[in-house]
Each structure stands twice: as structure tokens, then as C-alpha cells.
Amino acid sequence: MEGNGERNVWGDGEVHVLLDIWGDKAILDKMDGTSRNSQIYKTIAKRMEDCGFTRTVNQIKYKMKNLKKEYRKYVDHNNGPLTPPVGSNTH
């Protein structure tokens, strides 16, 4: 969510593009465990825009944070990756 209380809905295509960019070795190397490097998020925003998706740095940062949180929840629930908890909404 943004600070104004509006929901920030991402389409499947946007999420896939974000994951592809995020998984790029150059991006991963720059992140190296930090979440405070705004230049990395600007780079991701630019690359997403090049793919036709306009998102702010904050939208990208929050989406990445939420994706990590959801992944951890799935892994913790199942003691292993890839299987969502029963009854979870994956969208």
C-alpha cells in the first residue's frame, strides 16, 4: 500500500517482469543483503518501464518486501519451498 491508503494492485505480467529483473545477477550482486540502496530500486524501475510497466521506487520496494514475506510464509508453513499453504490466495 502507498501512504495514502490506496491499494497497489500488480498484474501477473508485472510480477513476472519484476521477478525476472530481480533475479538478474547484476541486480542481485548490487543488492547484496541491503534494502536501503535507492539506486538499485531506480534501476529496477527503469528496467520495468522499458518493459512497459511504470512503477515508483516505493511501489517496487514494497512489492519486493511483500513477495519475500509471502515466500518465507510458504517455506515456513511447509518446511520447504514451492508449495503454498492450503487455502492461501496466491493472487
From TrEMBL:
Lineage top rank: taxon: Eukaryota
Residue stretches in coiled coil: none
Myb/SANT-like DNA-binding domain boundaries: 7-80
Name of one Pfam family that matches: Myb_DNA-bind_4
Gene3D superfamilies reported for this sequence: Homeodomain-like (1.10.10.60)
InterPro entries assigned to the protein according to its UniProt record, in alphabetical order: Myb_DNA-bind_4
Listed name of the protein: Zinc finger and SCAN domain-containing protein 20
